[in-house]
Write a structure and sequence with these properties.
By secondary structure, the chain is α/β, with parallel strands linked by helices. It has helices at 19-24, 36-66, 75-91, 120-128, 147-153, 164-179, 203-212, 258-283, and strands at 3-7, 25-29, 94-99, 111-114, 134-138, 157-159, 184-186, 216-222, 238-244. It folds into two domains: 1-33, no CATH class; 43-283, Glycerol-3-phosphate (1)-acyltransferase (3-Layer(aba) Sandwich). It contains eight helices and nine strands. The chain has a seven-stranded mixed sheet, with helices on both faces. Strands 1-2 form a two-stranded antiparallel sheet. The longest helix has 31 residues, at 36-66.
């Protein structure tokens, strides 16, 4: 079968081209790929986006880290996080359409729970949520220069998935932050989907919700999976649809009813996904 190539970092390229080109391209059946000019444009676009994200992270990360001296409340750092996200989305040509912002309270503490399909979910949520919040994130992100420094200084909570005792301690720390009036954003699936579909939820994060009794605001993001897929560095422009649902109270749930809470949140996610998909079809 004849073949053509398309960008997808980390895969071999079966021609005599340079090692740099080999790094960007993989073989796909003819008819599934793009013509060579579009392939070249896609590769250049991806490189430009990655370079911009690195520079943008250094810029806003530097301002955020130094802001602890003159803005210990974190207001400037949060401003940096929002504009780091907005400028990244703008440069990568990602448009965001949001419904349901009225469900985000400016006066009460809430836990924001979203599906997780791409690294771009972080940019999207940071750009659209109009209140100051922190993240429960995997430990490895705290070692990323500038980004990790910002996260540590702003008191984000790291989760070590390979160490159960450490993970429980981190969730206890997150619970104390929430009780102290801090909003938290979580990905109940625990990690990015590899297929684009919703994954089963992790129980640990729901213990956090039950322990605090703080309501969950369900959020479904439709469209980020195709921007930056797992195991790839190819960045694609897209329109993303965000559906924010009404609060899901957690005060009535006990530790024995964790699975009921998980099922109820999954039902909310499925409903929001349907609404987002219907809007995508309507506007496409």
């Amino acid at each position: 079968m004849p073949y053509r190539v398309r960008p997808s970092f980390g895969y071999p390229y079966r021609t005599g081209s340079s090692a740099a080109i080999q790094f960007f391209f993989k073989i796909v059946p003819r008819g599934e790929g793009l013509d060579h000019m579009n392939l070249l444009f896609e590769m250049i676009n991806s490189i430009a986006c990655i370079i911009f994200i690195v520079i943008n992270t250094i810029l806003w990360g530097s301002v955020s880290v130094t802001s602890v001296v003159y803005s210990p409340s974190g207001r400037v750092a949060h401003f940096c996080m929002r504009w780091w996200s907005k400028t990244t989305l703008w440069f990568c040509r990602v448009k965001v359409d949001v419904d349901g912002l009225e469900h985000v309270s400016r006066d009460r503490v809430q836990i924001f729970a979203s599906n997780h399909a791409s690294h771009f979910d972080i940019f999207v949520l940071s750009a659209v949520l109009p209140v100051k919040f922190g993240w429960v994130s995997k430990k490895i992100l705290f070692f990323v220069p500038f980004l990790g420094w910002h996260m540590k200084l702003q008191g984000y909570v790291s989760i070590d998935r390979g160490n159960r005792a450490s993970a429980i301690k981190s969730l206890d720390e997150a619970a104390e932050k929430i009780k102290g009036g801090n909003r938290i954003a979580i990905f109940p699936e625990g990690t990015r989907t590899r297929s684009g579909e919703l994954q089963p939820f992790k129980k640990g994060l729901f213990h956090l919700c039950v322990k605090t009794g703080v309501p969950i605001v369900p959020i479904f993001i439709n469209g980020t999976y195709g921007i930056l897929r797992p195991e790839s560095l190819a960045v694609h422009p897209a329109t993303v649809y965000v559906k924010i649902g009404s609060e899901l109270p957690t005060a009535a749930y006990s530790p024995e009813r964790i699975e009921d809470l998980m099922n109820d949140l999954m039902a909310r996610f499925i409903e929001l996904r349907k609404e987002a998909e219907e809007k995508r079809v309507r506007w496409s």
